[in-house]
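Bug #77: duplicate submission created two jobs. Keeping one. Sequence:
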Amino acid sequence: MKQSKKQTVATNILKTAAVLALCTAVAYLFNLAGLRTENISMVYLVGVLLITMATERLLYGIAASVASIFAYNFFFTAPTFTFRVNDPNYIVTLVILLAGSFIVSLLTSKLHRHVAEAQYREKQMRSLYDISTSFLGVSGMDDIVRYGMNGLSRLENRQCIIYTARDLSMGKHAAAELEENEAARWCFENVKPCGCGTDYFSGSQWMYLPIRSGNEVYGVAGIHCGDTAPAPGEMLMIQTVVSQISGAMQRETLYRQQEESKLRIEKERLRNNLLRAISHDLRTPLTGIAGSASFIADSVKNLSEEQILSLVGDIRSDAQWLNNMVENLLNMTRISEGELVLKKQPEVVDDVVSEAYRRIERLKGERDISINMPDTVMEVPMDGRLVIQVLVNLLDNAVKYTPEHAHIDLRAYPESGYMVFEVSDDGKGIDPSILDKVFDNFVTAPALSGDAKRGMGIGLGICKSIVEAHGGVIVAMNNDRGGAT
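Kept job's structure:
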């Protein structure tokens, strides 16, 4: 760095000497042409202007002004080639030339300084613009902190650090930083600048500024000062960037609060829908069970065995439906609370399918359910209880939305390293308006039978959660021949 400074000084001296030599040569030509000496002095005035512009330093302009006076006096005033002045008019000319040279040097130097300041401000404004626009596409507190630190470092070429409110409250930084952390924590708690250049923790080499918006404090920004505090212009830029960081943090905090509010509203809506659905769907089967049981108790002597068996079958069917619904409710609760734990072990596919069919057989009515299985016995790692529930829900859905005497196919076959379970029917298919959201909770279509026990619309949503928890995929489509798969 010292070598570079010496080289700059040497270069400026050479520039000054070269311009003065050039001015002397031009002035000599003018003198040979018979021009008055007052006009020749203007050549040196232009030379001083050129030297000040070339070196961008007032010192060289002043030195060139003095050197110009001596050169003008030595070469062009009588007696020539001496520093004596016989004509008093020359003295006035020399004084005017010297004053003019000083003024030109001073004005040129000021102009350079103003240009440099303008360029610096333009660079700072461009940096501020880049920093502010970069925050527009940033989300997440960690990214905001990273962009903020990069922005501060790039703007002032100083080492920077940002502590979030969470960092300071948890005290997660190393013990070696304890003293600096204490200053940052004091800044956070008191919402006041501290450190270098302030009245608090003035011995620190860091300056800390609170990142705040209104009454909310989001963290603390630290700027390394070393032995010199930032100048007022620097402080203005630093405070501007800190305010942009606080704006980005405020936006992120508001977004999080909004998302949490949406989640609470969604949970409340889900709870209300669930309670409403339970109160509606439990009433019908419970009323049927109570009515059939009361009728049997009151009229057992007047009923035939066939009538009693029919009523008991209805009770069993309603009880099975209630049991299936309670199982779905329990699974949905586990899923919503993140407590759905898979207990995978090898399960025989035939046994899983057979158990699912056994549970749905009493509810199928006059519908024909055919089962197609692989020719060989296959074991697949799965949570058998949950996969059985998936198949029961799919079969129950097919039963509810197909007319009596409809045909339902249940197939299982291996494909591309997966075991595919497929439930297909020949009913009217799925309404295209709900086809893309049929696996969402509380999405239902009117049952063909008009039965009030059409369900709450959570069965297929639970199927999706269980299948995806196994690493699988579940889809629904309408068949070309009619019905759905």
